Every structure is written in structure tokens, then in C-alpha cells.
Amino acid sequence: MNRLLSNSLIALFVVSSLAIQTKVHLYDHYEDEGGPKHNTQAPDFTLQTLDGKSVSLSQHKGEPVVIDFFATWCAPCKLELATLKAWHTKRVNHGRKTITVLVVGLDKNGDDLRYYVKNHPNPFTMLHDPGSTVAMQYNVKGVPTVCLIDKDGKVLYVQVGLTPGLSYLLDEFADGRLGMR
Which of 43, 119, 143, 172 has the fewest CB atoms within 10 Å of its CB? Predict the structure, then answer.
């Protein structure tokens, strides 16, 4: 029994170590392959909302923005979007400032996004990137990917995969404490 427990713990340690190394490598690779680097200008883009309105990142210059690359088939994306929604609701309910969240849906079919939003409403601007052109511009290597853009349009933070401590990170960002030195 002790041997089985010992082997299980070793296996868990090895798998966890590989996951951490992969995550670090993904982030390093993300920047190395042309993704937006910390403190550089975020690439501007224009996409359509699900009801056909054009929205561009440059429309939000002067305010902090979260870009959340999302897909309806991605379970971690759904979890991250639910976390964003809970964070937003809590901030609003406590009378605290929120920030603009642009959710960039990468599903090829806009009907899948519409169906998801209909069944899981959220307060965010949902944009459709059917050809993944913006995802390529941002060199998105996996979903979810979260980018925090400051009021000057510069990239403060990029996270591939679920963002640990997302609510805390967003509080710091919304309150102007992230990236201040």
C-alpha cells in the first residue's frame, strides 16, 4: 500500500512538473514567436459583434481593456468566462469600477457563439473572429488566452490557459495597481 501511494505521488509530481514547464514554455514561446510583448503597443483590430456592429480596440484607447480569446468547445474558456462574469458582478454590486472586457470568439460558426451567449448571458462585448485573424495577430497559441491592455494601449500581461488568481489580478488592474512601478 505504501509503495502504491509512493508511486502515485511520484507520478503526480512528474505530471505536475511537466505541466508547469509546458505552461512556462508556452508563455516564453508566445513572446518569442511574435506575440505581443510586455509594455509594447497592442495590435489594433476591428471585429463584428454577434449583432453585426463593428468594434475596434482603438475605440477603447484611454481605458484599460481585457481581451479574452474564447471558444465554445473549450471547457477552460467557459470556466474563465464564468470567473470574469462573477468578478464583474461582484464589482458592480459593490459599486466599484469595472473595466471593458472584449471576448473574442474563435468558433468558425457564429451560430455556435450566439447559441452559447443566449444560454450563458454575460455583460461583455462578444466579438466573432471566424478566420482567427485577430488570434493570429496576437499569436494566440491556445485558449483561453487573456491579454490585459492598459489605458495607453500597451500590453501589461498575457496568460495562455486558465489564469491563476484571475479575480485578484483583475482587481489590481481595474484599480490601477497593475504595472505601476
Answer: 119
